[in-house]
Specification:
By secondary structure, the protein is of the alpha+beta class. It is built from twelve helices and 19 strands.
């Protein structure tokens, strides 16, 4: 008698689970509410799909998962980034490694990753039907069937919940997995946005809207305790509401209770230069443009969009000739370049978050199998679990690792 496994959700975790379960001999059926699978994967990495991070050490992987990283030790051990890369290369997808060990398809097309997952799932023998699961039915503490929105009851031996979180709800991640798990007695850690853009107090951010900064360093402080909570070097973006980009998204995971309290972000626009070196550089530019207005003398130092912002914040009249700028004024200007302050006052809506923080409590899941400790035959994979990581391919790796482990375990 074959082992019937139903997987709820055909995202990254669900498709990977279907492959590992079917290859291990299970009779696999995926139930997906969308017509197309892995819609969220299609939009990751701005449509390029940062498929994983070429990180070879387990401790480095776990260090990039600030929420319940140790829970993933077994899942990562069983399916590392090297295994993810081998999986896709075996499916005919050429990969490349970029800055920060980020791994992308050579084509820069997320659809290649989605097609590879889908094709591998189909070739493994997994079946897929379109529908929405409303109930997981149990008998004597064990999974025995699922019920769909149209009233069908499908018998099974195992169920893997891989429905995603609540971010990007248009892709199908509407929190169904939380409802299903909670109905069976599981605790749900309140879902919140993670890796999410930030709303800023400063109105001038909208003046710099669309400006992307590279090679900058940000340092974030809790405004109440004034303790440093995050510091990193990389890229960020100004928007009409505040700030976004890789640095900001990663910083957002360290901002607890944002809204109830605020965080100050200090941007070092020239991290390669000390205050003294930058001061000398400014003096050199001022000498070169000695008879020009300040507003017209910073083009070599700053992006055009940021010049009026910096000049306004410095308090120096834009029409001041550079040879008339005092030492004190110049130092104020240099300080701004080394520590431009943005006050984060709120997260953008969860729909704009890359991942959801929160989900099914990890203490109620067996980390060695991804099986529920409360219901026999119930497994979880991916973002529905209370784990989330930094940007750089780590969240997709969580999906693949937990999906692989859940699929193999459910097939036993």
């Amino acid at each position: 008698m074959s082992n019937k496994v139903i997987i709820i959700g055909a995202g990254a975790a669900g498709l990977m689970a279907s492959v590992s379960a079917a290859r291990a001999g299970a009779d696999v059926t995926i139930i997906e509410r969308n017509e197309r699978p892995a819609r969220k994967v299609m939009i990751t990495g701005k449509g390029r799909c940062n498929v994983t991070n070429n990180c070879s050490l387990i401790n480095d992987l776990i260090a990039n998962v600030p929420t319940n990283g140790r829970f993933l030790y077994s899942a990562f051990t069983r399916f590392m980034p090297i295994d993810t890369m081998e999986f896709f290369e075996n499916e005919g997808v050429e990969l490349k490694v970029e800055r920060g060990n980020r791994v992308f398809p050579v084509s820069d097309k997320a659809v290649d990753i989605v097609d590879a997952l889908n094709n591998a799932s189909q070739r493994s023998g997994a079946k897929r039907i379109q529908g929405r699961v409303t109930h997981i039915i149990t008998s004597e503490g064990r999974v025995c069937a699922v019920k769909t929105e149209d009233g069908r009851e499908l018998e099974c031996d195992k169920v893997i919940v891989a429905t995603g979180g609540k971010s990007y709800s248009v892709t199908g991640s509407t929190g169904d997995g939380y409802i299903l798990a909670e109905s069976l007695g599981h605790t749900i850690v309140e879902p919140k946005p993670s890796l999410v853009p930030l709303v800023a107090h400063e109105g001038w951010c909208s003046d710099a809207q669309g400006l992307s900064l590279r090679n900058v360093e940000i340092t974030v402080y809790d405004k109440e305790s004034y303790k440093e909570v995050y510091s990193e070097f990389g890229e960020m973006l100004f928007t009409h509401y505040g700030v976004s980009g890789p640095l900001i998204l990663s910083a957002s995971t360290h901002m607890h209770d944002l809204g109830k309290k605020q965080y100050e972000i200090y941007i070092d626009l020239k991290p390669a230069l000390s205050f003294e070196q930058l001061d000398q550089r400014v003096q050199k530019d001022f000498l070169e443009f000695a008879n020009k207005n300040l507003i017209n003398s910073l083009g070599k130092l700053l992006p055009q969009k940021l010049i009026p912002v910096i000049v306004k914040l410095s308090g120096i009249k834009p029409t001041t000739k550079t040879n008339q700028v005092t030492k004190e004024q110049r130092h104020t200007l240099v300080n701004l370049l080394k520590s431009l302050k943005v006050t984060a006052i709120a997260f953008r809506p969860i729909d704009e978050a890359i991942v959801t923080s929160g989900g099914i409590k990890t203490s109620e899941i067996n980390p060695k199998t991804m099986e529920s400790k409360l219901i026999n035959g119930l497994y979880f994979a991916g973002e529905v679990i209370d784990v989330d990581a930094y940007t750089g391919g780590f969240n997709l790796q969580i999906a693949f690792s937990t999906g692989h482990l859940a699929g193999e375990s459910a097939a036993e």
